[in-house]
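[Structure tokenization] protein backbone as discrete codes

[Encoding] learned vocabulary of local backbone shapes

[Begin record] amino acids and matching fold tokens:

___
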Amino acid sequence: MNSPTSTVPPAGQLPPAAPHVVAAAVEGLTSRLRKKLDAAIEQYAATPAVADGGNIRISCGEDAVVTLSPGASGAIADDGQACCSCLLAPRCLHRAAVLSACPVADADADAGTDAGTDAGAGAGADTHMGTDAGADAGAGAATHAGASVGTGADVDAGAANGPLDGSLPGTGSSTARDDPSRDGTAAGTTTGPTAAQVAAASGLWAAAAATLSAGVPAAGAVPQAELLRAAHTARLAGLPRAEAAALRVVRGLRAARDRHDGHRLADLVAALRELLLIAGRLAAADPDPALVGSVRRSYQSGGSLRVHGVFREPVISGTGYGGVVTHLVTEDGRWFSVADVKPGGPARARGAATAPVAIGPAMLNHAQLARSGLLIAGATISPDGRLGAGGGVRATPIDGMSWTAGPLAALFARPLAEAVGARLSGQVWNESEAAERANEPVGCDLMIVGAAGDHVLARELLPAGVPSERSDPEDDDPARRPPPAVRPDGPLIRLIPAASHPDLAHVANLRQLASRPGTLVRVVGRLDPDRAATLRPLAIGPVPGAEATLRLPAGWQGRADLGYDRLQGSHLPPHDACAPWQAASEADVDPVAGAPLWRVRRLVELAVAGGRRAVAEHARGGDSHAQGAPLRRAGFEAAAELAAALTAEADRRSRDVFGRSTDSGPDRYAWAWLAAAIHLAAADQALVQASWNAGRF
């Protein structure tokens, strides 16, 4: 096995720092220095970092220089890797501020590197980054081609596939499965969390509830450090899913306070909702093993596999990672992926597009693999479908599979509403399961209608072989069959960029498609579970047998990866080949955004953005009473009751026996907010599912 080497981020960038290192540095400050911490972070974050060999130096004054020495993973994982030259070190403001300005390292950043780099790992023992680098896109601090992935300051590199902790629904902790003696039970027996796990979850709940009560403006470095300390305690107690949720919240808070361009308040709300739900259930000793999660991605033997490339997906993470994920499919329709995600950001995401694939001796790069295939012997597979690169893995290049044959043809033959129903069926109180289902790619044939705002409008086509109003059922000659017809009962579909980073081609490619209404395209993409009838296309190709479709170069082999391949005007059909289409009247109608639930959403988001005090002021202003009537008229009785309960709890004032105001604590307020947030998420999910069947009502 090759010995690991230190990875230094590009000049001017700070390396990620482990949560416990940041928390310890903040806890070591005096109360006087803690009051100055937020201002110091803002100052030192703007100070250029100078790379000096394997070290990074930040000048914090004439006599204070902070030196960071990242380990093999590229992260600051130990207290000794961050030093300051001032007399107060290590309990100094300079060191704590610089560490707090560093991105939050992934949970297992110091535990291993990407499986693709571990050529000497044995079969079944491959290692992988503990948390997908692109997962941070969901919180606004990163950009990812499928997110949330990404932030996601948590794009699940999800960035590509599945939950951040690598667990499968209902599987529980891999540590507990592999070593039943840890909790004294027999294998396969479901038990509740241990006393240590309950205590860790209680601490995490307290930190999260305090953060919710304070709101983004008051959630500075000190409250964030408390969350990081609680997350580290959860990790030591064997609660990786709770730890990952806490890290997503911290990243989202930082993105919100720094006003990152990619930040979305809805992503921070979702992260805080999941954290409070997991911590609250574990603190109550809920025995559901899915709450624990998996300590790391444990690769299992997969035997022999024949996989065919479908498309490449670029990954750009807010934590400084970049790379590519190539998605593959087997002949029986199972999805797998090969990832190459390492520190480097956008530059590495561009370069990884043609980087060699590190699976056995197969001499392919990711661009070639996306259009060909592999015959793998001794395959190792993670729970989320990642293919490992252990020493016992052997791979032989094979010809690729056309999008018109085998499982890919079946992917496009399935009605889109049916595929959407299967992928949006996850429970909102199990974020990992819901994200895993929604992330699986879907395929469909579409007709481009035009553009509206920041998205492209399209209509679904009837699958090949399905008769339309223009077809003659007695005519069996394929040459005389009419072109594919639009599904009459289908919704108006919105196509939005999978990633908007300027170094990627998603936005430019969608702009090209919107310029030629009537174009027929075959699309592979992901659903946007938060928007009505919305797809994030990842790859496209021509529709078989159609004239008004794409004319791609022969070297692209009938498909274009929208994150890398750039469409030109010559790739589009002639204007006279495209049927004239105009956007329908429902183009600007969004049943999710237009539902009265926006009143509850505004309240839930206000609680996160402004804290408990902002919700209390909202209640005193009388808005809480006015918003109940529209909700009830629309049939959202439960939403109205939960919103009223939240505002009442926010304005609750407890008094002692002498009539003095007392702090009742944030617990009851946090539970009221959580109930409203979960109900809102469930109602939104139901509306999104209904939007895909809008034409059938």
Summary: The radius of gyration is 26 Å. Residues 1-6, 110-188, 468-473 have pLDDT under 50 and may be disordered. Residues 29 and 92 are 7 Å apart (CA to CA). The first strand starts at residue 50 and ends at 52.
